[in-house]
Amino acid sequence: MKLAGLQATQWLLLLLATAAQGKSPHPLVNKSTPEMITYNGYSVEVHPVTTEDGYILSLHRIPHGIKDPKTSRQPRPPVLLQHCLLCSSAEFVMNDPDKALAYMLADAGYDVWMGNVRGNTYSKNHVSLSPRKKEFWQFSWGQMAYYDLPATIDYVLKVTQVEELYYVGFSMGTTIFWAMMSDRPEYNHKVRFMVGMGPVAYVSHAKGPLARVASKVRTIETVMKFFGRYEFLSFGFLMDQILSFGCDHRVFTSAMCRNLLFQITGSNKKQLNKEFLPVMLTHTPAGTSVFTVTHYLQEIQSGNFQKYDYGEEMNLQRYNSRSPPMYDLSKVTVPVALFSSNNDWLAAPEDVERLALELPNVVYHKIVEDPMFTHLDFVWAKDADELVYKDVLRILAAH
What we know:
By secondary structure, the chain is of the alpha/beta class.
């Protein structure tokens, strides 16, 4: 532990020294999602959405593309993009416009909406609770599934005045979709078609740091409560500034940023977009609750797709059962297309196959051809447009 702490300290000092040199970072560094969209010449809107339990979410919209201008009379079907764990709407615009999924969809004639779940950079407001208090952070992705996603879908449908939308989820964006449909199956009628990239329900075959600490999940929960830590991995302005310079591909410390990233998600140097690395790392991690992370750790341990396990006593109060209920994937009746990869540490091939077998309406499943394609490559890879997004657009157009 001392050695690891020393290495972390040395890494931070190197980044500080690099930042002090004053090298100019990528022009999108430290720009918000709306600012990045505007920078690239697209129209953008910000919409607040209030959930049933009082969380105020920020929804980002690209109403039309550059190639499909506002004056076009063609109907623009709405598509909702939902991000991964510790991510935000920024994941879908952190690349050149001809390669980022949100811009590609907008230019293909879609009305693009990007969600932000409770607790991330853009959704830290509540009608009565302060994010400085522990009460704000008493949620996991189960609450995102039950409250955030239905509120977001209903809002998009109300604004666009249509009866159904397309849905594209990445990682946790797929988890909360499956869980929502299990708890609120009526939402199957509000989604025309669902695309799941790096789809996650079961995680018993996950690799990497999360898998290694999963057996200590109860200890982690106890320690975090003891120290009063309920928010997880939200970088502030100072760290963003350090990362923006220290992770720039033109400076030597960028290699440390890449190595740290590979330790978490797996290595695919060929697909790493070095130019955008400081942009990515100043937006990710975007923060969440401790319970959101420990919910996944519990599932790695149990091998189940289930609600949060509060312990036998609290489970009896919440669920009238000593163990948490399972989510029912058979209730996801909307047609689904899955995109997975064999080198995905978090959506492992065995777990995706189990998911695909239990979903009743999988109409398409593509395993990305690149054998080294990692989990974050679905939103960060240089060639994600060729390997994934063009097929996503083709599948959506066919439905």
